[in-house]
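Thread: "does anyone have the structure for this chain?"

Original post by V.I.:
We have the sequence but no experimental structure in hand. Need at least a predicted one for the grant figures.
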Amino acid sequence: MGLMTLSKKQFFLISVTLLFGVGALIVAVSDRAIYAWYAERVWGSPYQNELGFLTGWLREPGGRPTCWGITGVAKGGLFEKAGVREGDVPWRFKNSGKSDFVTLHYHGTSGAIVGFYSFLERSRGLGPVEFTVCPTCVPCGGDSERRVEVEVPAT
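Reply from O.Q.:
Generated one for you, tokens below.
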């Protein structure tokens, strides 16, 4: 079998396709928004079902999305029993056995989505874990944040 030769036009089309195709793939894989979508919709779906909550973009009274947080809490679910409310924004997490809270530095953003579901993943089967929520999209502290405790069941 001999070598295949390409015309200049064929070579150009293949090169451009590979260049843009590989570039688009790199952007898609590395983009935080795509990873956040995956974390919430695919990776986070079992946690939402087990613990009884929904997450998404919270909206101002005018309807404009402002930040990411808890958009729904199932009646009788583990999150409701823990005191999580619709509109709460996860803020800080306390891993089991640790004394300090870890602040979610991307409060209410795509990074918060990944951080929140990572926290739930690390907490699975460790017994009750504690995290704080804010009633607003503005990073909070002191009296405005509430501590809640929930147990993420082992699989």
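V.I.: this helps a lot. The radius of gyration is 21 Å.
O.Q.: and The longest helix spans residues 8-30.
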